[in-house]
């Protein structure tokens, strides 16, 4: 009875172990080509070989025997040692993918380099345009300064001429006023002498 229970327990354990590894993708190790058997051991008949790097599907695993039941690309179901399986893709499968990734990265780097060159050219063009604008503004500013200096000189000359005119006008008015005052003073001095002498002449004639 105990033996029957032990057998049942072993069977259940193996079943659970096989179920846990069902439909698991694995790869034949790159270092070898391996024989596949009809059962979990070398005592079973060899039904073919698998090349290094081939992808297989693990259907179940016999932990005690160290074998896995697999299905290959030819849809054959067979057994082979667990240590001849790898969880990572083989180099034969990874090299084309890596080459594609390298090609994609090279293309992207080429595009990035082209975009960078275009951006650099655009920036240089903008900087050149900005330099031209700055130079034009500086020249215009210098022209305005020169015009301001000329205008200031003209204003100064006009102020000098205006001061001369004002002094000339003031002098003319002073001379005119002095002349008028002198004539008035002269008339005032001569007029009293002229009027009495006329009266004396009038009396004498009478």
From TrEMBL:
Signal peptide: 1-22
Coiled-coil stretches: 95-168
Start and end residues of each SH3b domain: 23-89
Keyword match Protein biosynthesis: no
Keywords, sorted A to Z: Coiled coil, Membrane, Signal, Transmembrane, Transmembrane helix
Organism domain of life: Bacteria
Membrane topology recorded in Swiss-Prot or TrEMBL: Single-pass membrane protein
PROSITE patterns tied to this protein: SH3B
One Pfam family linked to the record: SH3_3
Transmembrane segment boundaries: 173-195
Intracellular or extracellular location(s): Membrane
The protein's name in its UniProt record: SH3 domain-containing protein
Organism: Symbiopectobacterium purcellii
């Amino acid at each position: 009875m105990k033996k029957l229970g032990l057998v049942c327990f072993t069977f259940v354990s193996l079943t659970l172990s096989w179920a846990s590894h069902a439909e698991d993708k694995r790869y034949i190790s790159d270092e070898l080509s391996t024989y596949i058997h009809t059962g979990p051991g070398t005592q079973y008949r060899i039904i073919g070989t698998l090349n290094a790097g081939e992808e297989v599907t693990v259907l179940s695993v016999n932990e005690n025997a160290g074998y896995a039941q697999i299905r290959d690309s030819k849809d054959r179901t067979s057994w082979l040692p667990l240590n001849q399986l790898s969880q990572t893709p083989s180099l034969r499968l990874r090299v084309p993918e890596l080459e594609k990734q390298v090609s994609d990265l090279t293309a992207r780097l080429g595009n990035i380099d082209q975009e960078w060159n275009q951006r650099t050219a655009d920036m240089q063009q903008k900087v050149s345009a900005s330099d031209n604008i700055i130079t034009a503004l500086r020249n215009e500013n210098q022209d305005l300064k020169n015009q301001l200096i000329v205008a200031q000189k003209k204003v100064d000359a006009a102020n000098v001429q205006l001061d001369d005119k004002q002094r000339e006008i003031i002098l003319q008015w002073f001379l005119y006023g002095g002349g008028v005052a002198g004539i008035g003073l002269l008339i005032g001095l001569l007029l009293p002498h002229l009027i009495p002498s006329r009266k004396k002449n009038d009396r004498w004639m009478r």
